[in-house]
Amino acid sequence: MTPVHFAFSSAFMLGLTGLAFHRTHLLSALLCLEGMMLSLFLALSLWALQLDSTSFSASPMLLLAFSACEASAGLALLVATARTHGSDHLQTLNLLQC
């Protein structure tokens, strides 16, 4: 395993463990998701550069576009829950009260 591969794998795993264990605020969950998407974007773009193929060159930009859509939807949900519930604590959200 190369050091670059290890760095991207460890960044993804740190984001995943942060998402799994630190679920007190919605904003922290969104930041962990963005960290995971950033590590995936960098790994995919370096993989496309190493292959020297033009067919894989569009995939990092497609992932970045989906990541931007995910971030905007997450921020919209954050604002909506902060307005309706008063905070972004995940313990105050209850699916049975919808």
From TrEMBL:
Primary localisation category: mitochondrion
Gene Ontology MF terms: NADH dehydrogenase (ubiquinone) activity; oxidoreductase activity, acting on NAD(P)H
Enzyme class: translocase
Topology within the bilayer: Multi-pass membrane protein
GO biological process, one term: ATP synthesis coupled electron transport
One GO cellular component, as annotated: respiratory chain complex
Membrane-spanning segments: 6-22, 29-49, 61-80
Gene3D superfamilies cross-referenced by the UniProt entry: 1.10.287.3510
Keyword annotations of the record: Electron transport, Membrane, Mitochondrion, Mitochondrion inner membrane, NAD, Respiratory chain, Translocase, Transmembrane, Transmembrane helix, Transport, Ubiquinone
Catalysed reactions, as listed in the record: a ubiquinone + NADH + 5 H(+)(in) = a ubiquinol + NAD(+) + 4 H(+)(out)
InterPro entries reported in the protein's UniProt record: NADH_UbQ_OxRdtase_chain4L/K, NUOK/Mnh_C1-like
Subcellular location: Mitochondrion inner membrane; Mitochondrion membrane
Record-listed E.C. numbers: 7.1.1.2
PANTHER family for this protein: NADH-UBIQUINONE OXIDOREDUCTASE CHAIN 4L (PTHR11434:SF0), NADH-UBIQUINONE OXIDOREDUCTASE SUBUNIT ND4L (PTHR11434)
Protein family according to the UniProt entry: Belongs to the complex I subunit 4L family.
Described function: Core subunit of the mitochondrial membrane respiratory chain NADH dehydrogenase (Complex I) which catalyzes electron transfer from NADH through the respiratory chain, using ubiquinone as an electron acceptor. Part of the enzyme membrane arm which is embedded in the lipid bilayer and involved in proton translocation.
Descriptive protein name: NADH-ubiquinone oxidoreductase chain 4L
Organism, as annotated: Lateolabrax maculatus (Spotted sea bass)
